[in-house]
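Cysteine hydrolase family protein (Streptomyces hokutonensis), 183 aa
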Amino acid sequence: MSKQALLVMDVQRVIVDRYPDPAYLPRLRKAIDTARADGVPVIYVTVGFRPGAPEVSARNKMFGRLAGVQLPAAAAQANEIHPDVAPEPGDILVTKRRVSAFAGSDLDMVLRANGIDHLVLTGIATSGVVLSTLRQASDLDFTLTVLSDGCLDNDPEVHRILTEKVFPMQADVTTVAEWAAAH
């Protein structure tokens, strides 16, 4: 029998603030509450680096500007998971070092140790962490579901193309409400 986990990816305050959609966090909260009520593990994935970002190469186009930079203490608070969807005791926290939730993290080990073989993906951005995680998880033979309105992207057309045309090749795509109703 398949065992699911809900992945809540990159919903750190600093990221959420760049995607102004007032309905997003309440929808995501519904998915999280549904998962918890059904005993589905909730795994929060955040992007983070050590002080000075020694794991970042200056050659990395996305993260290279952080190489060797000492971020101010206020940056740590801005990088916390948004309080509207904050983790609760028992939730699993994973820190990744690149775009995919698997890159530089222990996510695969956590999933396999807990017998999880079906991932339900949510997060910001659809064209970033969701796409990268979906591709890698598919290659690792996980069963996948994407909650289309549990994902955000700064380009609505890119979001639409990914959720309607690209993701269905490797995942079931549904909405938070449809997924919640099925649980």
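The two ends are 15 Å apart (CA to CA). Strands lie at 4-9, 42-47, 92-96, 118-124, 143-152, 172-174. ok done for today
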